[in-house]
Design a protein that fits this description.
Layout lengths: L8 H10 L20 E3 L19 H11 L4 E4 L1 H8 L6 E3 L7 E9 L15 E8 L3 E3 L2 H9 L3 E6 L18 E5 L5 E4 L17 H12 L3
Parallel strand pairs: 1-2, 2-9
Antiparallel strand pairs: 3-6, 4-5, 4-7, 7-8, 8-9
């Protein structure tokens, strides 16, 4: 998906192709998704992040089709700004606000997989650790107490920020996210959002490869016979 201000749409296409898939570009004003198996909302600054990150993109014409696709059970992955858009659209719980430090953060982080009940983690084991970069200024995940309790009780947390050996504590939440939450899923599990950038962690020549298993899992999921 490309919105005005998207930065990582081509990176996502390249990562999908590198992992054996066939990436298809979709414009924000398209009236249909076409014959796709999964949708990726990429990182960037859709519509300049005016109002709030993702607040304008949620009204893009194509988002009606994304919602319908998700309601049919189609896999939807939101990365960074894409995560923000999915939260603004009500397809994921919680919200993303300014980092607690009020500073932009850009570095590799360790993530702990919390569930395999999503298309991007069904080939991973809960407790598995991944190294993936982040780059955001509004990545602090928040929710009110009632919603946070539901997110935890219903197992909607997909990834948590952690130490390199898997320890979860406030020190290793680079943006101050509540409960170190780095990614969540929908109730049905087919919609996933995360702040780290797996599309930047596929090529071993340029950095970590923690994004490979996420795209491999997604591609295996859509290729599986119904």
């Amino acid at each position: 998906m490309t919105f005005p201000g998207s930065l990582d749409d081509r990176d996502a296409l390249r990562a999908i192709d590198a992992m054996g898939g066939a990436g298809v570009p979709i414009w924000h004003d398209d009236a249909a998704l076409g014959d796709v198996d999964a949708v990726v909302l990429p990182g960037g600054f859709s519509y300049g992040d005016y109002l709030r990150a993702g607040a304008i993109a949620r009204f893009a014409r194509v988002m009606r089709e994304v919602r319908a696709f998700a309601e049919r059970g189609g896999p939807v992955l939101g990365i960074c700004n894409g995560f923000q858009i999915l939260c603004e659209a009500g397809l994921l719980p919680g919200a993303l606000i300014r980092n607690r430090s009020l500073r932009f953060v850009c570095r590799e982080v360790a993530l702990r997989v919390e569930t395999s009940a999503t298309p991007v983690t069904e080939r991973l084991i809960p407790g598995e650790l991944l190294s993936i970069p982040i780059k955001h200024g509004e990545g602090q995940f928040v929710a009110d107490e009632e919603e946070l309790r539901r997110i935890e009780d219903d197992g909607l947390v997909v990834f948590r920020y952690c130490s390199p050996d898997g320890e979860v504590d406030a020190e290793h939440a680079p943006n101050g996210s509540v409960h170190n939450i780095a990614g969540v899923r929908s109730d049905a599990g087919n919609v996933v959002g995360l702040m780290p950038h797996p599309e930047h962690a596929v090529d071993p020549d340029v950095g970590p490869t923690g994004g490979q298993p996420l795209f491999a899992s997604l591609l295996a999921h859509v290729a599986a016979p119904v």
